[in-house]
């Protein structure tokens, strides 16, 4: 089916806006590709260093110019559940490469931090910047110019966007992303949230809270709610950077290992030494980016990707804006309900039909570009499948089921949960912001209430504990933008505001910081731009000012006369506490040079 006019219109707008920057980018990709295979440009001394640690057979193979060499970029560490499974992947990849007539080397490692560990802690102020560090670390690994393609082992919040930025920067190389998969289901996410709220109210002990959290986060793999990590996997698959059917297969299974081996072989099959050369910089284009945004809306994905997708697109010379994302949200219905947009987790989503079912429904409704390039060598229709393990231990693919296995979790286009993706831009005299409404009840889409202003999230939590917030209000948490302190997630505020909302209070959040990919039931205007430290109006709000957050009409205003606002001095706060400790002093340069949230909050600059 041809893509709908609304989707094509946004795609063409992005294409036209990006024309000059995209052409310049593709010229650089073609120039780099013309020098393949890249080992031929290395001196003998260079090359000897590059394969000194290899086995004799691999040295002989790499001495010539006809055997492909696969670079592995890994985010492995054994502290974090999502990344621990990657420990065994390089050995699988190397064996698969050998079977395919190639060689594989670990080109480098990248840091992988967990927002779940650092939520509400000083380390969270490094989180967003870690994305750009990951991109740079990847560049260091690939700078040796030894590789004909690369595979990227990453899964969580900032890791995949950072790897994607780097992969597109090395756009002449084919790129295949290999996930580790979600952990098996544990304590249901809604029960975990219930215990968190009880703890916030002092009704359960810390020991009981820790027990609930440990039953929820209990083994290897990503967290099972649909936050940024699992949104990443959806994006990589719907953009054609995964092999089909690979996103939500649990780690430690025979199918997971078979998919990993197959992905390595596929990466070697699409190098410049083959007949299927697929450089990622040409493969990913404006249509691929739009497909990613459509998938984000159809699944109720993470608000963090309103920042990350802009930065990823920019790496390919493509200019994506919040307005593009908002307009696509208006055109794309919600087809999945996975926590926090529902009670199910990603394992339930996979069992109900998963991405294969979802992609087919979106294609059949004309909401995705089918005629895109993918690492699989076919258009996006090839991704309307579910992967299974064959009798010979290899992957077999079956068509996605015609009917959803659970219509509480996943529905066909004809039965959409809501007509839009529920993610939109708010505009008004406070600037621009993003709001995600897919988990917010319609009667809470408009909140008008007095402001209670805080300069950090701890201030709000302290006020709640002191019993000062049992009323209708809009919490303004400012000086949380990228320039101020690295734009940490403020996910811990969800619990406190959720308690007050459950008591019948009309509450909302307005902040220049981020919320988690688990942004939930409380209306939250996030990523307010310009931020307070950059002269934004959010810095002039005072306690008692009436704010109006109107998700129905896309408005965000402080209801104070313009003349009065003009004469107000912006608020000030002591940011020196953010400058030292847990490595924050090393990121002063990042805070000084980072761009605005609506431009990807990147230190690499934006595409204009």
Automatic annotation (TrEMBL):
Cofactor(s) of this protein: [4Fe-4S] cluster
EC numbers: 4.2.1.12
Assigned keywords, A-Z: 4Fe-4S, Carbohydrate metabolism, Gluconate utilization, Iron, Iron-sulfur, Lyase, Metal-binding
Cofactor binding remark: Binds 1 [4Fe-4S] cluster.
Homology family: Belongs to the IlvD/Edd family.
Job of this protein: Catalyzes the dehydration of 6-phospho-D-gluconate to 2-dehydro-3-deoxy-6-phospho-D-gluconate.
Name recorded for this polypeptide: Phosphogluconate dehydratase
Species annotation: Pseudaminobacter soli (ex Zhang et al. 2022)
Gene name tied to this protein: edd
């Amino acid at each position: 089916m041809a893509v709908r006019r609304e989707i094509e219109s946004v795609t063409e707008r992005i294409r036209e806006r990006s024309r000059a920057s995209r052409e310049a980018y593709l010229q650089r990709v073609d120039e780099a590709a013309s020098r393949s295979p890249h080992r031929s440009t290395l001196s003998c001394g260079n090359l000897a260093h590059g394969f000194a640690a290899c086995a004799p057979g691999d040295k002989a193979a790499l001495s010539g110019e006809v055997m492909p060499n696969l670079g592995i970029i890994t985010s492995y560490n054994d502290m974090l559940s999502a990344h621990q499974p990657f420990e065994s992947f390089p050995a699988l990849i190397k064996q698969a490469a050998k079977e395919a007539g190639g060689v594989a080397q670990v080109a480098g490692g990248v840091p992988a931090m967990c927002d779940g560990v650092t939520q509400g802690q000083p380390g969270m102020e490094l989180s967003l910047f870690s994305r750009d560090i990951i991109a740079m670390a990847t560049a260091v690994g690939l700078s040796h110019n030894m590789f004909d393609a690369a595979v990227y082992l990453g899964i969580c919040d900032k890791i995949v966007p950072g790897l994607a930025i780097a992969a597109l920067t090395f756009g002449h190389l084919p790129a295949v992303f290999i996930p580790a998969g979600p952990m098996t289901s544990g304590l249901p996410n809604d029960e975990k949230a219930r215990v968190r709220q009880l703890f916030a109210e002092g009704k359960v002990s810390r020991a009981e809270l820790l027990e609930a959290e440990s039953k929820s986060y209990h083994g290897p793999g990503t967290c099972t709610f649909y936050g940024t990590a699992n949104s990443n996997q959806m994006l990589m698959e719907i953009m054609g950077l995964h092999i089909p059917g690979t996103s939500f297969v649990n780690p430690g299974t025979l199918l997971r290992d078979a998919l990993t081996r197959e992905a390595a072989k596929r990466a070697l099959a699409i190098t410049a030494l083959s007949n299927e050369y697929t450089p990622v910089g040409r493969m990913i284009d404006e249509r691929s980016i739009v497909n990613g945004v459509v998938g984000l809306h159809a699944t109720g994905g993470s608000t963090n990707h309103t920042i990350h997708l802009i930065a990823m697109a920019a790496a390919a010379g493509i200019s994506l804006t919040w307005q593009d994302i908002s307009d696509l949200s208006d055109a794309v219905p919600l087809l999945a309900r996975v926590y926090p947009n529902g009670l199910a987790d990603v394992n339930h989503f996979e069992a109900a039909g998963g991405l294969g079912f979802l992609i087919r429904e979106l294609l059949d409704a004309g909401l995705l570009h089918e005629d895109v390039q993918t690492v699989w060598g076919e258009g996006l229709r090839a991704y309307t499948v579910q992967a299974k393990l064959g009798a010979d231990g290899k992957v077999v693919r079956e068509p996605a089921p015609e009917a959803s296995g659970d219509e509480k979790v996943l529905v066909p286009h004809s039965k959409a949960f809501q007509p839009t993706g529920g993610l939109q831009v708010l505009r008004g005299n406070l600037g621009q912001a993003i709001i995600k409404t897919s988990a917010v009840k319609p009667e809470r889409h408009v909140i008008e209430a007095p402001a209670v202003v805080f300069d950090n999230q701890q201030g709000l939590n302290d006020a709640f504990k002191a019993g000062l917030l049992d009323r209708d209000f809009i919490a303004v948490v400012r000086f949380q933008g990228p320039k101020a302190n690295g734009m940490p997630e403020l996910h811990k505020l969800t619990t406190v505001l959720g308690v007050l909302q459950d008591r019948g209070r009309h509450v909302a959040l307005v902040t220049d910081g981020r919320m988690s990919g688990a942004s939930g039931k409380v209306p939250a205007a996030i990523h307010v731009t310009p931020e307070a430290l950059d002269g934004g109006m959010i810095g002039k709000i005072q306690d008692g000012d009436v704010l109006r957050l109107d998700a129905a009409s896309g408005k965000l205003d402080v209801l104070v006369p313009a003349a009065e606002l003009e004469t107000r001095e912006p608020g000030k706060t002591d940011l020196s506490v953010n400058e030292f400790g847990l490595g924050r002093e090393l990121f002063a340069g990042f805070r000084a040079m980072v761009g605005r949230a609506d431009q990807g909050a990147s230190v690499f600059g934006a595409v204009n």
